[in-house]
What does this fold into?
Amino acid sequence: MHLLNPFSALLVGTTLAGLASGVAVNNQLSTENADTPFADLGLSAQFWAKMSAYCGKRAPKRDTFQPLAETSIPDGYDLVKPDAFKSYAQVIKWEGAWTEHLVTCYGLVVVGDAAQPTDKDKLLAHFFAIDHSMDTLWNKIKVDIGGKGQKNLRAWLSAPEVATAYPDLPKADIQKLEDKMKAVIKGFTGKEATVRYHNMQDVPNAKGDIGTMQLNNEDKSVRIDGKLVPFGG
It folds into this structure.
């Protein structure tokens, strides 16, 4: 058996860690060729403030906010927090990524076919409901999984169900945001996203998997609210 010397073993471990974490959160985004589809919607600052206030919180009760109901991340999976994403190279086949507390936020999984084992071919993102944050995250995602000519891109979207919006949230504006999200995804992948809707008022109060999204690295399967969702299904 051929054993790696300590330096080689350290190098391999570091390389694999880099392939798994990649540029999940890269705060240095160039503004050159950056798109601003969500800011371009022209929705009011008041709308975005109300939307973002529900991310990670429950409905106001007696003028206080309480934490969301807890759910459990699968063992070994990476937690994706709001306003972030986690991406993986083709060679990474273990565990995956998971996010929770999707109330007014959007969960997104994109997978594709990479030319090289070290190229990214799968990611999970949690879009915090603020226009400039969504624009920044979207531009990072396009570079991360589309920057090396990945083919056959497919996307899954967990979107807030407009009909379940809290009374202080304008449904027409939420619908405009949903339509824009679907449009930018289709423009990037060339295909309609497979969409599931989460009940905004159920997420904070229900125990279990409501408001969660999961990416399995081994087979690129996706679960939304705990249920397996085939692409196109």
In short: The helical segments are 6-21, 45-53, 131-146, 171-189. The beta strands are 78-79, 84-89, 96-99, 106-113, 120-127, 151-160, 194-198, 213-216, 221-224, 227-228.
